[in-house]
Amino acid sequence: MGRVLVLGHTGKLGRALARAFGAGHEVHGCSRSTGFDAGDFAALRALLQRLAPEVVVNAAALNGRAPCDADPALAYRMNSLLPRLLAQCSASMGFLLLHFSTDMVFEGAKGKGPYGEADEVVPISTYGLTKFGGDCYVRAEAERYYVFRLSMLAGESRRGEQFIDRMITRARAGETVRVAHDVACSPSYVEDVAREILRVVEQGFPAGLYHVANAGQATLHELMREILDGLDLKAPLESRSQQEFPFPSRHDRSTPLCSGKLEPLRDWREAIRDYCRSQRGPAAAAI
pLDDT tier at 64 (50, 70, 90 boundaries)? Predict the structure, then answer.
């Protein structure tokens, strides 16, 4: 593996992947914060032709239910059409494409156990639907690819826009943190996820779809209890039903992940404790 291009390299996932791949490979990064718009398809195609990467890591997306509900056209462009373009370029230029999906492609009504790669996909939100569209385009049009489905990520964040980061910001401000006790996921430390993805790529696993998450599952309330304790934050934590929070679209109740192709990563609690230790040092200022 030679030159690696990371799209969205300043985001939580992109930063971790750039660090992981940078240990042994030539990594180039671009993102909106550095002046590059991955939604400008002509500019992106020109960049790919000029740089001629051997691997393209697509960590660029419009993430979250609320932003996607607010601008469905942009969600479709970034989450479905951008992966389609990259899949087409992968087929014509020959690079390996790494694309990232979400547990929110599932309905969350399975009722028992986590979701594996073979489980039926039923997206119930604009975010889940547009991300699944990207999955389908990549799997249909790319020849050399991995699609990695991920759950809720904890890790270093500059923008602080994602769920965990927003809750920590509130707690540090002394505000009450209100989270759902009836929404479950597979909390995962982004550094663990990035290392596993690097392993899959370097060891040449077969192309296809993989679920990558720390082992086990937690409700959002259990997750934030672990994080607030780990960061020694004394803000009040209140348990609520998801029905008490306003969402424009239907809400995924329980979407933990497991893999039938990869060995489980370490337990989520151990991973979150490491995340908290990282945030008590200089990196904490990044949130």
Answer: confident
Instruction: Show me where the domains of the chain are located.
Output: 3-286
CA angle 252, 69, 58 (to 5 degrees): 80
CB distance 80 to 134 below 8 Å: yes
Rounded Cα–Cα distance for residues 3 and 51 (Å): 8
Query: Helix/strand/coil (H, E, C) string of 126-166?
Result: HHHHHHHHHHHHHHHHCCCEEEEEECCEECCCCCCCCHHHH
List Cα–Cα distances, 196 to 53, 158, 226, 262, in angstroms.
21, 23, 23, 9
C-alpha 134/C-alpha 12 separation (Å) is: 20
Could you tell me which residue, 249 or 21, shows the higher pLDDT?
21
Q: How does residue 252 score in pLDDT terms, banded at 50, 70 and 90?
A: low
pTM value surpassing 0.70? yes
Q: Is 264 left (phi over 0), alpha (psi -120 to 50) or beta?
A: beta
For residue 146, what are the β-bridge partners? 98, 208
Q: What is the pLDDT of residues 82-103, one digit of tens each?
A: 999 999 999 999 999 999 999 9
Q: What architecture is domain 3-286? A: 3-Layer(aba) Sandwich (3.40)
Contact assessment for residue 179 and residue 222, using Cβ atoms and an 8 Å cutoff: no
